[in-house]
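Protein modeling request. Please complete all fields; requests missing the sequence field cannot be processed.
Requester role: graduate student
Desired output: 3D structure, token encoding
Chains: 1
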Amino acid sequence: MQVNYIKRQAEFKALLEQQGYSAMLVLGHENIRYLSGFSGNAAYALITQNACVLITDYRYHQRAIAETTGFEVVCRDRDNETLGHCINRHLNPNSHVAFDASYVTVAIWQGVADELSGHTLTAVNGLIEKLRRVKDSWEVAQIKAAAAIADEALAQTLPYFKPGVTERDLALELEFRMQKLGSEGMSFATIMLFAERSALPHGNPSDQALKQGDFVTLDFGAVVNGYRSDMTRSYIIGEASEKQTRIYNTVLDAQNAALEMVKPGANCLDLNAMSNKVIADAGFGEYAGKGLGHGLGLFLHEVPFINTLTDYSLEVGNVITIEPGIYIPGYGGVRLEDDIVVTESGFEVLTHAPKPFII
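Delivered output (359 residues):
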């Protein structure tokens, strides 16, 4: 199983033509990787109807030649040629050039734009992401592999969840085991939170020590060939109170209710509404997290998003997270998150770590 970069490039050129652009300057590293295979940074891609050009420098030149498919690799001498000049010599006169507006600083773009003044420049967002939201079988396999690493790393780390261990120590242990199992670094900065700090949806691990009866929320992921996994589990150390149990069961019920709706054609608005209803009916509506999930791939958070704003019907090949949560300030919180791929018959779960509430 291999990536068909030539097919991706053809599809993107067709999309550019439909939008009325003669070229696009691709600035986001993940978007460049999606179209070319190049996994480094310090690179810019220019896509026209006649060519695909990757502009880099001496640090990445040979690596880019080895990794890219369907691209001419240009090694720019940064001391003697500006980026704008290099781009300009690969464009036809009076081109209408779109550019990845979300991935460039104002300072860099002003310098480039001055040298491209002979062309029409248009800022765009989400054009390549429209192609990326539906994953092919190779992409799904990479996310599955990343999820499997995360599953195994968690299984190896669970014996360390004992009173006295700190959030920071457990996070480091989990990250070490993911990398030992083959992860290319972390999908994102690991979230490991105890007790009342578990009410922070995206808190940083601290030196707080674990105690009996504490909530534990951990959110983490591995990376394989640039593709990310994203999983959250919540636990209680020792014996759970009645309120803690109600919170956990409510989140689990909300996740299952949303999952039961997942199939091609299901609308993201409806999934989000179902999860919110379950949480509200249990009396925790004011503490519900904002948004049920998101797409997953080369980005940690990519389209489609599952929230109150995204009117999108799921398609076969969407890889998404389903992650309801309840966060009560000063008390604690619970989130459960799994990665799934939408299939013709419904969905397949990619994350398989068990969900025992009490450990």
